[in-house]
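Look at a sample.

——
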Amino acid sequence: MSKQMKKLMKRLRLKKCRSYLRYATFRWIMPSLGHDPLFHMNLAERAWPKVAAMTASRKYTDRIESIDCAANSPVDEYSDELQEHASNSRPFVLRGYIDKDKWALEQVKKEAGDSINNIRVGHYDEATDDPDVIRMRLADFIDHISGQSKFPREDLLADEKGAYLANEAIPSLAKRLPVQSIFPDTDSGKLFWLGSSSRSPLHCHQHCDVLLVQLVGNRKVMLVPPHQASLVGCIPRNYNVCSAEFDPFEPDQQPSLATDLIHRLYYELNPGDALLIPGFWFHAVRVTEPSFAVSLFNKHEMPLAVGGGPRGPWRKRSYTQGWG
């Protein structure tokens, strides 16, 4: 074997060793040191082009696909349907997914009224880091949004932005929710939202799919597909969440030639409805009446569209393989 060939083989072996060492570093060593986000950020960066290519080739209307659920259907009857739409990166609504009559706010007060939760105040939808919060009993906050009592710190509220119980775990209520195969049955993967004049800014989740279930009242949701990240002004906030500069509910305040090119999909969730938001899809929410909802996250998995979920866990993919 010639010297040149030996050098080439040596380089190839070294390159392979470096690849495995890099994989081991990001997969095991860095997480053990508390740097798990580094691994997630790299995987999400590799996944963006794949999911963007899936959504860019489609035609869009302003409505989201939906179906009616059969009354008293088994809780896992729609698992295959949810998995199929998530794998194809297509938003989807299940109308009548849960029994809305079992989630009246008075019943919630009886079951979890003593739960102490963080209530967001001020301009929480514009906060780049942790929003301002106060601690409050769930029962007291329900009384407030129902008009039975005043908010204890009205001086902390911003104009047109009521206080918001957002992204909060309530274990006693989480146990009552139906379980689907693509969403693990854990309290940390079921987070609640409660308010009467509240909002969430346009943002996306990079390493999970979300099922937003409306329990009480209505909730206006607007989605933008992943391939239009540059048009909405995508800003990475952490390893999972990216926010957008564009406000889909107030486009007139942001005149731009690109604004007309943005595909907006609207849906108003009614009590009992469930909206599947695939990973990397931007979404924003507006609430104008007492409204209670819960988000189910398939946390610690990449979105199904890029190999996550029960059929192909991303953890088993080699770090050097990328997506494809």
User: Anything to note?
Assistant: Residues 91 and 277 are 5 Å apart (CA to CA).
